[in-house]
Write a structure and sequence with these properties.
Layout: H1 2-8, H2 14-27, H3 43-50, H4 56-68, H5 75-89, H6 94-108, H7 117-123, E1 125-128, E2 139-142, H8 145-158, H9 181-190, H10 195-212, E3 227-231, H11 232-237, E4 241-244, E5 249-251, H12 252-258, E6 265-269, H13 288-298, E7 314-317, E8 332-335, H14 337-342, E9 350-354, E10 364-368, H15 400-406
Parallel strand pairs: 3-6
Antiparallel strand pairs: 1-2, 3-4, 4-5, 7-8, 9-10
Helix pairs in contact: 1-2, 2-4, 3-5, 4-6, 5-6
Length: 429
């Protein structure tokens, strides 16, 4: 939640948020569960910051250096290294502090032999960067030796020249070990891709194979399945951009191709409307149909500034379930775990509602509990909705998409009378 507050309320960049969070965790004197007062993780750095000699950029460099010290280094040596680096940083720029830190690391582990499995496991990871203007995504990774060996073995086979070439209809697919040598040789002669492009196509082919062969599982959890929302106009014209449950923007033509290899949940909304059909449910947990409808409307967490995608959200009740809130679609909204728990009738919490009027009718509004502030909606996941000229607004109900959905989602069992003024889809008999 602290990170979400820094991004959502102070509108800090991800880098600035990480800097401040890391600094707070490293420099603060925290209290243990036992009530014991704990010293800062970086006491010398905390003292230099308190004296006004170090900036956040200095702290970020020191945190990175200390984090890179192998776990095999004794604690007292690590503490001395932090003290010396913090001391010299008082007279250096952040860039010069980084250079000094590299010198310390080279002294502590000159041959890199002290790094062990604990360090490798602690620093392993794969990071998927946000999409750029071309909808392309950069990947950065730190792979363990075992993970790299497995990846290289797969790429040798799947990324061989001529294999899994999306621009060649006669290109063999899968592993080169199962392909006729003459066919592979002919495909290799037609190949014009670089090694990097072959690696990309091999990974995509592997992921396609996994999805087509049950790699996402066969359970009922929608978070483990491919879920996409698009407009009717875009589907009919095979143009435009769809959105997946994880927040990825996907060209509709690619969506159509993926649908041939997987069975995605597809939620379609009329271009001019994002209002969704009424679905009632007497249980606390939202049904699959309701979750799909929430994805189509909300895209993810509805709290202002939150960027958590739909695949990581919960169905938030308005009012809360324990206060008598029904599990009806016009009383539900997407919310991440942290923001769902932050909704409260007590001061310092949030209150929520489905907006009944205005340009964002049908969407979830948030404001501090007990305040008279205007209701706020989340534009972080749907910035186009906030554009006065180039965005779109909800202007109709009872649209073609609601009829489309009504034919595909079973009618709910009889429930309490629907409040006056609620738009209800009448299911065919």
């Amino acid at each position: 939640m602290p990170g979400k507050y820094l991004e959502g309320q102070l509108r800090l960049s991800v880098r600035a948020r990480k800097q401040r969070t890391d600094a707070a965790l490293s420099l603060s004197s925290l209290v243990a569960f036992s009530g014991e007062q704990l010293d800062p993780t970086l006491p010398a750095t905390a003292g230099a910051v308190a004296d006004g000699d170090l900036s956040l950029d200095h702290v970020a460099e020191i945190v990175d250096v200390i984090d890179a010290i192998p776990s095999a280094i004794p604690a007292d040596v690590k503490a001395r290294a932090e003290a010396e680096l913090a001391g010299v940083a008082r007279t250096l720029t952040p860039e010069q502090t980084r250079t000094a830190g590299k010198r310390i690391l080279a002294h502590l582990d000159p041959d890199g032999e002290l790094t062990d499995d604990t360090d490798r496991a602690r620093t392993r990871g794969v990071t998927l960067a946000p999409q750029d203007r071309r909808l392309m995504s950069a990947i950065s990774a730190k792979l363990t030796p075992a993970a790299r060996a497995k990846l290289e073995a797969l790429l040798v086979s799947w990324a061989a020249p001529g294999m899994n070439n999306p621009d060649d209809e006669q290109s063999p697919s899968g592993s080169s070990a199962n392909v006729d040598p003459d066919a592979l040789s002919a495909a290799a002669e037609r190949n014009t891709r670089s090694q990097a492009q072959r690696n990309h196509d091999a990974l995509e082919a592997m992921w396609t194979f996994l999805i087509a062969n049950g790699g996402l599982g066969e359970g009922t959890s929608l978070s483990s399945q491919l879920v996409v929302t698009a407009s009717l106009d875009d589907l009919e014209s095979r143009s435009g951009v769809a959105t997946t449950a994880t927040g990825t923007r996907l060209p509709v033509k690619d969506l159509v191709e993926i649908a041939g290899d997987a069975t995605p949940w597809l939620e379609v909304f009329a271009t001019a409307s994002a209002q969704i059909l009424y679905l009632g449910r007497g249980k606390r947990l939202a049904s699959r149909a309701q979750r799909l409808a929430l994805f189509g409307r909300d895209r993810g967490c509805t709290a202002p500034g939150c960027t958590v995608p739909w695949s990581k959200t919960q169905a938030h009740h308005m009012p809360d379930w324990q206060d008598g809130g029904p599990t009806d679609i016009d009383h539900l909204g997407g919310a991440c775990g942290g923001h769902n728990r932050s909704v409260s009738t007590k001061p310092g919490g949030w209150e929520t509602t489905i907006l009944q009027t205005g340009p964002f009718i049908g969407r979830v509004g948030w404001r501090p509990t007990g305040s008279n502030e205007p209701w706020k909606v989340n534009h972080a996941l749907q910035p186009e909705k906030a554009l006065p000229t180039f965005g779109d607004r909800v202007t109709e109900s009872g649209s073609a998409v609601e009829k489309w959905l009504a034919c595909r989602i079973p009618a709910p069992p009889p429930g309490p009378p629907v409040p006056p003024g609620t738009d209800v889809v009448r299911y065919p008999a």
